[in-house]
Design a protein that fits this description.
Length: 280
């Protein structure tokens, strides 16, 4: 179906923003997998003079309205969030937001994000993606074939993933993380960990629960809070963000000013610093 999007929306920038690992360039568009759903999205030209840009989603209108519209967080005004930034007060963040215009915080599944960010520890993005595709191929189900003829597999459910042995998980290039993934899968599959119910907790309570999980530290927990629970004030800190804070904000970042959207600002800083900002 054809969708006109008037707010900030850039497929390449979202794909490269470090928040998603099954969102890949494919032909003239992007192949996006979330849970057991797959969609191909591409930008199309439009000469009708209306505001915004036009995209084609190769799914039924019902699926777009019930799933993908929410997944891409299309009801949130990111242009308005960028408007909170004053170039005179924070020139670096202003340039970062201009450079990152089009990034949105996807509404992703807490289970998928938990496993993805456990895997992400001390791995670069290509390696994270490769490991995730391996566990999907090992435990997921074939759900589609992409535009390049490659099989697409669902992200495994807790039950499917917990059925893999440590040896099978290790074969997915998880390294020392295999035992963390195995334990998380068993805990969620057994009902000992109820990720959906944790959404009712406040941020401090959610952080406490996440830190109780085997192999989950503060960075992974913050990534889960921002990208898995879509709490837009969470501010994960990795090597890039710590470098930005040290070099550009020696007096401290203006967290109070950007509340409750510090996580959006984090994405602009992360994307810009990795791409351009730290070259200066």
């Amino acid at each position: 179906m054809i969708v006109r999007i008037e707010d900030d929306f850039d497929l390449r920038k979202i794909a490269d923003s470090g928040q998603c690992f099954r969102f890949n360039e494919c032909g003239d568009g992007y192949s996006v997998v979330a849970g057991d759903k797959h969609v191909f999205v591409r930008k199309v030209t439009s000469d009708d003079g209306k505001a915004g840009e036009t995209y084609e989603f190769d799914c039924a209108e019902e699926e777009f309205n019930t799933f993908w519209k929410n997944y891409f967080d299309l009801d949130t005004n990111y242009r308005g969030i960028r408007g909170l930034i004053d170039a005179r007060e924070d020139e670096y963040l202003y340039y970062a937001s201009e450079y990152g215009t089009g990034i949105r915080i996807l509404r992703q599944d807490p289970w998928e994000m938990l496993i993805s960010f456990i895997i992400s520890q001390r791995k670069n993005i290509p390696a994270i993606k490769a490991s995730i595709e391996k566990i999907c191929g090992a435990a997921g189900r074939k759900i589609a074939t992409d535009k390049e003829g490659k099989d697409v597999y669902s992200f495994p459910t807790p039950e499917e993933l917990s059925a893999l042995s440590i040896e099978q998980l290790s074969a997915c290039s998880l390294g020392y993380r295999d035992k963390y993934v195995k334990q998380a899968a068993m805990d969620v599959a057994s009902g000992a960990v109820k990720l959906d119910e944790w959404d009712n907790l406040d941020d401090a309570g959610l952080m406490e629960k996440l830190l109780s999980l085997y192999g989950v530290g503060v960075k992974v927990a913050n990534c889960e809070i921002l990208f898995g629970y879509h709490r837009l004030d969470a501010f994960p800190k990795d090597v890039w963000i710590n470098k930005v804070l040290d070099m550009k904000y020696p007096q401290g970042f203006l967290f109070d000013k950007y509340k409750p959207y510090n996580g959006v600002m984090q994405q602009y800083l992360f994307f810009y610093s990795r791409s351009e900002g730290m070259k200066d």
